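Notes taken during the Thursday session

The instructor put the following on the board and asked us to keep it in front of us for the whole hour. The protein is Enoyl-[acyl-carrier protein] reductase III. We were told not to look anything up and to reason only from what is written here. First, the residues (252 in total):
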Amino acid sequence: MTTDVTAGRPAGVTAGTWGLAGKVAIVTGGSRGVGLAVARRLAAGGVYVHAIHQRSPLPEQPGSITFHRGDASDPEAMTALIDEVATLRGRVDVFVHNAANAWRPTAMLNTPQDVLAVDLRLALHPLLCAAKAMTSAAGRLIAVSSSGAHSVIRGYGAHGIAKAALESMVRYLAVELAPRGITVNAVSTSKLDKGPDTPNPGAAAALAAATPAGRLTTPEDVAGVVALLCTAEAGFIQGQVITVDGGLGLWQ
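Then, after some discussion, the predicted structure tokens were revealed:
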């Protein structure tokens, strides 16, 4: 792992913002999309955020986020990164696992075994590494999942299976870590509105029209729920998968 940017708490943040100021968080897949939105949301609340990215370029305005380049699917690299942050900050309070491989639509029968293995490794190992390393009382482990974990999306087989396994791990870890005051939950979403970068605009428009809220979910919508799960008020939410889709899943 290599550190690209180092910064401290955002200027002007008060200690009372969400009650999270001064917390320490690690976010995987944190240089774009949902991961970046989560990193920015937490940093805005005074959290010391360390974001992991592998290949994506860094945002033009990183703000008060420390970026680390590395492979989140490598257990040794993840453990080293968590140890590095814990040594620097004294502890890790929050771990948000958002990293996922790029999706290339492939029929399940045509999916190479190594592709499925890679998706499973990236889905499971980072959260397990964080669970083993988490020592902070009232710690928070949060995974980002998708509707493909429980609904069939054409060509999404390997990703969907990996996300389903991730949600199962969330439940098992929740039971094991609850006695230590650590919560483990997941946030699930459907197709995201990525602005001009949203793939397949026609399908996106149709899904937006079918959504009771009248639009697709944005990365910022997901980040808001992740931030909520980090608070003390969410301390009795345990082992849950919270869907953030504006009600789209109610039709499915």
